[in-house]
Design a protein that fits this description.
The chain has 273 residues and is an alpha+beta fold. The protein has 9 helices and 5 strands. α4 crosses α8. It binds iron/sulfur cluster (SF4).
Length: 273
């Protein structure tokens, strides 16, 4: 008998086991949505979060330029940051928050349905005081017949980026790798959803990895903060590149007062009369 995808029978059947032995999330999401087309009301977290100057954050800082991190963690530079969060970018953030809320709500609901994964926790806080690392895992799920809980990170992509996605982004891999190091769990799943139609999913298993390179970069930043100077930290961009042009520290990171190639003028310290 052929089981039609999206049918009640499909929803009640156990997804086929992945040949590599890792849990897979998307087949369970498909079964859940076939069973529960309307999951009820849920809350979207669009709260203002004050900047954390004390800790390093796996969600966005694993690959961040070390000089930028130095400036980001030092409140005295806050007023000089050039950050343009226009309407378009705000809407992008809000769509991301809404999709996170929607999927995290599905995970909450799945817990009540036999044969589907149980939610251990949404927004699970992970911290390491000694390393000064803090973050929160989007969700942790306990899959049927899988011994250890599995951390899940939800990521959104535009249709073009989603289409060409054949491996997880390096920054996302490192983020999840850091969570695995902090929790001791063997692997996690990066779940990507397309923000545009068709709203497809892709998932990638990420195993524990050597986080030494990231931790060493972060240590250099902490040493520079303790020393009160970024002078030993390398410049990680060229002046005319998109990395420079989108960096909020571009106005004060280089104080040479040089305008290269007609690019954005570099901030010059005021001259004293
Ligand atoms: S301007 Fe370049 S070197 Fe300076 S903080 Fe930004 S990315 Fe790093």
């Amino acid at each position: 008998m052929r089981i039609r995808e999206g049918s009640k029978l499909f929803a009640l059947s156990a997804p086929p086991k992945a040949s590599d032995g890792f849990a897979r999330l998307v087949p369970y999401v498909e079964r859940y949505l076939a069973l529960v087309p309307n999951s009820g009301s849920y809350t979207v977290d669009d709260l203002y979060k004050p900047k954390d100057y004390d800790n390093l954050h796996p969600s966005s800082e694993c690959l961040m330029c070390m000089r930028r991190l130095y400036f980001e963690k030092n409140p005295k530079y806050a007023d000089q940051m050039v950050e343009k969060i226009d309407t378009e970018l705000q809407v992008t953030f809000k769509i991301g928050h809404a999709l996170h809320g929607m999927i995290q709500h599905w995970f909450e609901n799945m817990t009540d349905i036999e044969g589907l994964p149980d939610l251990v926790e949404n927004e699970a806080k992970v911290t390491d005081e000694a390393l000064r690392v803090a973050g929160s895992i989007d969700s942790i799920l306990k899959f049927p017949d899988v011994e250890e809980p599995v951390p899940i990170e939800i990521k959104t992509k535009t249709a073009d980026l989603f289409k060409s996605l054949s491996a997880p982004d390096a920054a996302h891999r490192l983020q999840l790798g850091m969570y695995l190091m902090l929790t001791g769990l063997p692997y996690g799943i990066l779940l990507y959803i397309s923000k545009d139609r068709p709203h497809s999913f892709k998932e990638f298993v990420v195993e524990q990895m050597d986080m030494g390179p990231t931790l060493r970069r972060w240590q250099q930043v902490k040493d520079a903060l303790d020393a009160g100077s970024p002078s030993l930290l390398p410049y990680e961009c060229e002046c005319d590149t998109s990395k420079f042009k989108s960096c909020p520290c571009r106005g004060f990171c280089r104080r040479e007062g040089v305008i290269r190639g007609g690019g954005i003028p570099i901030w010059q310290p005021p001259t004293t009369m």
